[in-house]
Amino acid sequence: MKHFLLAMLWVFAFNTVAKAQTGNISGKIITENKEPVAGAVVMIKALNKQTLSDEKGYYELKNIPYGSHVLEIGSMEIHAKKQTITIDKSEHVFNVSAKAKDHKTLNEVSITGKTEKKKMETSGFAVAIIETKEASLRNLTTNELLDRSVGVRVRQNGGEGSPIEYNLNGMSGSTIGLFLDGIEISTYGSSFNLNNIPPSMIERIEVYKGVLPSHLSGNYIGGAINVIMKKDASANNITAAVSYGSFNTYRADVGALYRNPKNGFTTRASGFYSHSDNNYEMWGKFSKYTLPGGRIIRNYRVKRSNDEFETIGGRFEVGFTNVKLADQIFLGYNISDSYKEIPHGVTMTKPYFGRFNEYQAHVFSLNYNKKDLFFDGLSLNVNAVHSRRSTYLQDTVSLRYNWDGTLLVKNAEGPPETYGYSPGKGQQGDAVMSNIERRISNIRSNLAYDIFSGHRVSLNHKFEKSNRNDQDLLDPARSRWITQNVLTTNIWAMNYESELFNGKLKTNIFGKYAIYQTDQKSPIAENAGGLVYENSRTTRDNKGFGGTLSYEPINNGYLIVSAEKSFIMPTDRHIYGEPENNLLANPNILPEMAINYNFGARYNIVKSNKHKFMLYGNMFWRNGYDKIILQTRVDEVIEGRENQIEDIQVTQFVNLSKTQSVGFEAEVNYIFDNKLNAMVNFSKFNSLFKVEKDERGNPHSLYNKQVPNEPFFTVNGNVQYRLNDVFQKRSNLNLYYNAGYVAPFRTIWMESEWFTTPTQFAHDLGASYRFPSGKLVASFDCKNILNAELYDNFGVQKPGRAFYFKLNYTINNFNK
Amino acid sequence: MENSFFKTALFGCALAIGTLTGCKKSGSSEASSVSGPDVWARKYITLTAAFPDATGTAGNGGTMAFAITPEQAINPNFEVNVFTGGYGLRSQRTARVQGSINGNFLYNIQYTGTDGGIFNKYKVEGGKSFIDTREEVDTEPILGEAPRWVVAAEGIGVGVYASATIQASAPGAGADFIDVKSTAKIAILSLDDPKITRQTEFTIPFTAEQTKSGYQIGRIDVPILNKAKTKIFIGCNLTRTDVTKKSTVNTNGTQTWSSGTRELGTATLVVDYPSLTNPKLIYVDPTISKTNNHSYRTMTQYVGTDGHVYQATATSGSQILRISGTTNEYDNSYNFDLKAALNSASNVSISSWRYIKDGVGIVLYTVSGTTGGYLALVDLNAKTATKLTTDNETDIGFSGRSANTNTGVTAITGAFGQFQNVAIFGDNIYIPMTPNGVDGNLYAINYKTKQVTKGAKLKNQSGSFYLGAY
Predict the structure, then answer these.
(1) How many angstroms separate the CA atoms of B393 and A252, rounded?
(2) Taking CB atoms and an 8 Å limit, are B9 and A680 in contact across chains?
(3) How far apart are CA A251 and CA A311, in angstroms?
(4) B1, B15, B254: residue with CB nearest A617
(5) Host domain of residue B237
(6) Closest C-alpha to A294, from B96, B202, B189
(7) Rounded to two decimals, what is the model's pTM?
(8) Domain A2-111, CATH 2.60.40.1120 — does that match?
(9) Contact A526 B174 (CB under 8 A)
(10) pLDDT confidence of B318, banded at 50, 70, 90?
(11) Chain B CA closest to residue A532
């Protein structure tokens, strides 16, 4: 609570600062033919202020200090224009008439200023920005988009809705942070995550490799994926899409935005529904069938069963945009619900029937941001989220099944006998019916101040409090004996950004400090009907610092460098273990430290109006020290358990002295005449075993060898071609081709075809057609057209050839 | 930059060409006609070794195998590196490898992973050449993902599983113990024509008085078939809950109980073969032994030339007990104690052993308070033991050690802890002796003359050791 109050304090610390004299300007951009110019960039460079004109050519810039300024206007449609203006009152109107360019194309509005994508990608961080605008019209999921991006490997354990692990250049698992608008995505519950948020609800996705900016802090040393939801409030619109495809997959999503230009009242609503049976055919080596008596048939062609996935969700926001008190202020409600059947465990050892999860989440949010708050150059951004989410797991079917869904037969001879029911058992082990309810409050605030042009200091604070309530629904009396934990996190981060040499050199240095507090309440006895608790509190803290640098030595050529040093403190689980779960204690475990470096470059070559090349390359070097890993102990006698001979798997968290991942990623993009867009990217890294000494103190034989189970070489390529006026005038047809390659990799040290994930090479084809009205877009996609055998995780086959069809309908500018 | 683009483009082309022209490697090309019983004379001695897993845990990452001739085995100039030149047996974790009588077949049931619980059979062809017979059997539905099993008689594998469930007066802390039920599962595996021929599940027949006083069996192992092939004897991990103490809970809300003092002697579970009916528990006189006999990764029960079953209290005890071939009960007049036979002041523990012939056996053991792994030839009739000498027998890599967080001592995994098998050919027995992470040798021992021959050199690597000879 103390930290929370502190956080609030600094949010309002600048309350007393006086206001400077400023004025607002607005107006309309038109051509000499009096046609409005939409999407023109209107800016005052010296003040770093810019905006876009709307569909009717109107623009608005606020809080311009009194005095003389140069207003610059640029667009694909008009010749750039500069105009000097003078601000001496609170409201000015400047209408601008500009000369139109010859080739007037409304289909593609390329903005001459830096797009958000380019701005971020040249900021100094090793970041890839994925834009979702076009993908949202196609049959692509958010995860598929991510998987195509450079250095990202999405490893999903089966069909749609299955658990996913993201691998960013060799770093994966809990070292990767997943955020939604800067808030940990887990806050939104398992029913609202990258598995089901449609790209149409997303503005863009930022993928940070290794080094994280100060507004995304946490226990993450491998990088982060930050999903930015749609923010745009420029034009009223309604969009709707429906799709249908293989494996009985059907999806729908709708979205609507309304803004009252008079008072700034804005409301945004969106919803999605998705269903898939995931009953695709599997035929790989680990697709098995067990004959009576136990003999195995491999490469058994079978449709995957018990893998249905269904999800529904909605997001509603009400607020004001571009009003006096706020640039954006929104109250939001997010509801989601999903159902997922679980067809097998982590591996395809045996099929499960009747095991499933249900997730539900109610999330309330408040979003506030304001530039030039109180005085020029001060901006505040607050995102507060409170969620109530629940996870239900049921596994109460005790019968034993074969992969085709029939009951397993025990005996090879005589009348067939099956295993029958075994009371108290489920598919994975003991029968389960459990519900976990979590309440999470998460507040992220950012206060930034432009000291003077090109120099900005910002303060970030994150507060998170979560508690969970576990319920055993099969044995409800046990529930109250489960230890309760409340976790409170406070992360403070500060950074200083500067732009020197006319913006050619950009630097950013940052420091982070985090405090984690766990309050544990363990029931130890029962007294007169009430429980006696033992309360304990542990506090851990960690720090980190880093910096980035971006330098533009030649026009459109950038050198990008970033580095970060951070620590992760061990948790109670790491230190004290869970003896009852065969997890041993390790009181001497050390904090984990990571040092990450990125060295990269970007270069855009524009030879003529027709040819454009974009090149990107980045070398990364990730060093982990005392990495905390879960190790299996095989000693048959273990300290403290001398009277037991172990043949059960006993585990313990230990420090792995050193880990290292060194690699390179690159992307080449070629655009011809705004018609052809071809891109190829690859990522290659060595995740090396860096333990120098073995148990005996001798040089380790495995030193510097590639650690197993890392997809260390991936290549993605895609080509898009646009044809205008096909079938109908003013229509356009886009053709797409995509290929993804993952080099084979071993899953254990030993070389064996049985423990190697084979080469994966898949090709997708697609087309989308925009009807002349511009309102309707139809698209068709064929994924994995050559029906290749694909695996993300060892032995768990992914879908083969599949077809999808989608219709999108958009109404823009209704009622305006 | 331009250069990297062209490289990437070139690579893309190469990929495309590779895909178009490359032929698919067939996973099932190996001929699998060679199977059935081991009817051939011995040609090879197969050595197996374990290596670390992905996080570096010694000896946990899988098993490699390499077959050498008996001549090569006794040649100290012949060098074997199973890690670089061997054949990987299928299993994500190091499992138990078993062999046929003349060493022409190896059997393995995979531990954990996608194929956890799947039985595989390999024909030994010399060197790194092994033929996977592809006669795969799924034992997981009965035995789980890391089965406890052994060859109980030539051509017959037996897998076993046990668990115990405590009944309490109430959930949570402060409850009273009421009763406990122990359940066993047994599966018979035909090794000559791999399949499960019979399986059963039953409640372990403690008396009501025994279970109410806290006796239970949570694990069973090392099943052996008697000479007449009418009974299976199974080693038991017999434990006792202290019924006078009330329950406590862990963070998960699950009850935990204290251990009590045991009064029953070493126990063996007996069932009829092949019916798997008529389960019965037999106990040795508790004054002779109360040490459990369920072993770890190696077989520790054998049928002697005299028809009796000899059973070690492995892997923590020092005794070898006898179950009579006529009564199928413990012979309380018999007790072989290795500690006494060696005249050792310190306690000794049998890590592994094998009955050879005519009452003679070879024992691998460790000594309390002393580092190293030792060999002794024992005469079970005369109750004598002769310690043998090998090169680096005092190395800590045999016995291992636990970590001590107070003194900063780190753990070392002991090679003897996971030792699996000793090969017998003629009058010789073959034992690979490599401490964890250190090179060693294969030793050939003539059980009649007690002569020790230092044989082939065994190259080792970090976190690894040789596990057995077959």
Answers:
(1) 71
(2) yes
(3) 9
(4) B1
(5) 147-296
(6) B189
(7) 0.85
(8) yes
(9) yes
(10) very high
(11) B173
